[in-house]
């Protein structure tokens, strides 16, 4: 039977088997964080450190004031004499005023350091998230196909928030602990150097303990961050597919699946706490032994008149603060492992290679011609070619149908035309321009794709139609809706074009989503329109209407249509059949229906229905 430790280790090993293995250089990552995100606020950070240093003096100031109170106010020549306390009463007011001043300085410095560092943190988090969002817009579509959306969102939101917290507030706490530790050691050396040596000798024991536990905590922290990303991904995926979950009554299964991940998260978190408590327990044992020894030696020194009672009181008050700083530093150093994991994850995303490098040529004024010249393409992470030595030419104004079995490379051709990817071999030309030399934004203004499974954004019907051209007027939006045979349906909705469609168009049917996506594309009036089986979810009557509308709308446009419908292919000027990444047939409907091959088989099947 597996022990609990073995089960937890198995969870950690699974999570650490992820390709996103931490192999960063802490010094390098911190230097980059400072150079790119903190250096612009150097003055504010230095001021915050300055006020933090003054704020850190408070416990030692209070201890030294106690020494003053004991030795100067309450005691004279080391002997407590109540009759002399009245004579020392003016010194008591000095003590009160100094204590009031110390508290005032403490409060002001605490407010100033928090105010300064708060501004730095908010500006840094804004910059980081802006850069991450910009990076995500520039990354090729393959990155999003390989990575779950929940994991990406966790980096932009959760990870950046943790970086901000640790590079500002926790950094100041770290600085304050170091400053307090060294300042405290200096003060106690001046009070009594022999007793101070006892504390200094104990420090290597703390360091040894931390060195032993640090690697274990680091592994668990990496595993926790990855498990957190998995929970983000699972939640996002299941929420977006909630209709499927309910359709198959899998609510209980989804609750169990998420509960398992939460259970594993709690296990790992508890294991972190367990190791931290081991560290604290060992540190507490050292602190107790050393404190008891110092108090004993201090009492002997006071008894032998080699140390004043006030000195011993100050030493005893400072000593716990020293040990607390050591414990705080050890806790921060164990937690800092998780922070560098997060920093490296964010920088890895920012450094992700953009395989589609923007060119300088704008395609404004181009003619709607498309030419594939010996194009071969393989998707990242796959071995088999999606396209093999593809050659074809589409003239301006032509309607071309792409047909073939699933996975034959039809959608890949669309993605290359939109420059979501660049081919490894060969060239794709649009209007006579090699797309590698063109600006992707310009390419996508002139070539618009309507996907087989359209993505509908939350917002109104009008917002979705106008998404490709935000300056569109209501009359332009309405015209595009009429072209897509959507206007009559919109007019039956509660508030017409201002009706909210819900997340991913949850209130719309599959056919309505496709018509809405088609209206969005038609509004932009692209030279080249790419239709990815956009009538597959439509009923026969609506499909016939849209086909008739498209025949009129597309007269002045070049169009490529992925379809499995013979009725759609028949109306096209040319039909290209792809199989296994190769072009196997090219011709018109009348030509291909007579040739043995894929097209004839599909034609016979549909004609026999």
Beta-strand residue fraction:
5-15%
Largest sheet: 6 strands, mixed
Strands in their spatial order, largest beta sheet: 6-7-8-3-9-10
Give the strand tally: 10
Average pLDDT:
77
Shape: elongated
**Spatial separation of the terminal alpha carbons:** 60 Å
Structural class: alpha/beta
Helix proportion range: 55-70%
The value of Rg in angstroms is: 36 Å
Number of H/I helices:
23
Low-confidence stretches: 18-22
Describe this structure in words.
About 1% of the residues have low confidence. This protein is an alpha/beta fold and 609 residues long. The longest helix is centred in the middle third of the chain and has 53 residues. It is 64% helix and 9% strand. The strands form two sheets. A six-stranded mixed beta sheet has the order 6-7-8-3-9-10, with helices on both faces. It starts with a helix and ends with a helix. Helix 2 packs across helix 13 and helix 8 packs parallel to helix 9. The protein is elongated. Strand 4 and strand 5 form a beta hairpin. It is built from 23 helices and ten strands.
């Amino acid at each position: 039977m597996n022990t609990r430790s073995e089960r937890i280790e198995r969870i950690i090993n699974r999570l650490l088997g992820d390709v996103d293995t931490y192999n960063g250089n802490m010094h390098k990552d911190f230097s980059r964080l400072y150079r790119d995100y903190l250096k612009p606020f150097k003055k504010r950070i230095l001021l915050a450190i300055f006020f933090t240093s003054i704020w850190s003096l408070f416990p030692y100031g209070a201890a030294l004031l106690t020494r003053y109170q004991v030795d100067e106010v309450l005691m004279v020549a080391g002997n407590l004499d109540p009759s002399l306390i009245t004579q020392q009463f003016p010194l008591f007011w000095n003590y009160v005023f100094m204590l009031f001043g110390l508290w005032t300085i403490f409060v002001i410095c605490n407010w100033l350091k928090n105010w300064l560092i708060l501004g730095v943190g908010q500006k840094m988090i804004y910059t980081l998230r802006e850069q991450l969002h910009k990076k995500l817009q520039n990354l090729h579509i393959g990155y999003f196909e390989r990575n779950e959306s929940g994991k990406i969102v966790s980096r932009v939101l959760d990870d950046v928030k943790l970086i901000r917290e640790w590079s500002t507030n926790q950094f100041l706490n770290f600085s304050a602990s170091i400053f307090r530790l060294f300042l405290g050691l200096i003060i106690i050396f001046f009070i009594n150097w022999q007793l101070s040596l006892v504390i200094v000798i104990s420090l290597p024991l703390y360091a040894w303990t931390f060195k032993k536990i640090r690697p274990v905590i680091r592994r668990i922290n990496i595993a926790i961050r990855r498990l957190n990303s998995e929970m983000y991904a699972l939640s996002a995926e299941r929420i977006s597919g909630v209709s499927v979950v309910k359709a198959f009554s899998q609510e209980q299964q989804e609750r169990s699946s998420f509960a398992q991940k939460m259970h594993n998260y709690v296990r790992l978190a508890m294991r972190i706490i367990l190791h931290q408590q081991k560290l604290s327990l060992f540190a507490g044992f050292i602190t107790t032994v050393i404190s008891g020894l110092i108090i004993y030696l201090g009492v002997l020194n006071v008894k032998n008149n080699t140390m004043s009672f006030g000195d011993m009181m100050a030493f005893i008050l400072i000593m716990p603060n020293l040990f607390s700083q050591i414990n705080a530093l050890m806790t921060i150093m164990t937690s800092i492992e998780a922070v560098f994991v997060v920093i490296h994850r964010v920088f890895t995303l920012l450094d992700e290679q953009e395989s589609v490098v923007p060119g300088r040529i704008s395609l404004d004024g181009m003619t709607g011609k498309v030419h594939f010249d010996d194009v071969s393409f393989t998707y990242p992470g796959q071995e088999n070619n999606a396209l093999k030595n593809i050659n074809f030419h589409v003239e301006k104004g032509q309607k071309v149908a792409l047909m073939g079995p699933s996975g034959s490379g039809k959608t890949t051709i669309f993605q290359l035309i939109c420059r979501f990817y660049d081919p490894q071999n060969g060239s794709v030309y649009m209007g006579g321009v090699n797309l590698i030399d063109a600006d992707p934004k310009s390419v996508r203004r002139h070539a618009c794709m309507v996907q087989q499974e359209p993505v509908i954004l939350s917002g109104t019907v009008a917002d979705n139609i106008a998404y490709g051209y935000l300056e569109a007027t209501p009359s332009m939006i309405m015209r595009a809706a009429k072209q897509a045979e959507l206007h009559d349906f919109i007019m039956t909705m509660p508030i017409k074009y201002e009706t909210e469609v819900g997340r991913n168009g949850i209130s719309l049917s599959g056919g309505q989503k496709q018509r809405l996506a088609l209206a969005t594309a038609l509004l932009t009036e692209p030279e080249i329109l790419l239709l990815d089986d956009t009538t597959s979810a439509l009923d026969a009557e609506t499909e016939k209407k849209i086909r008739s509308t498209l025949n009129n709308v597309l007269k002045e446009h070049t169009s490529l249509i992925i379809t499995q419908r013979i009725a759609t292919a028949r109306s096209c000027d040319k039909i290209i059949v792809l199989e296994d990444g190769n072009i196997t047939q090219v011709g018109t409907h009348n030509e291909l229906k007579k040739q043995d091959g894929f097209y004839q088989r599909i034609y016979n099947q549909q004609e026999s229905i």
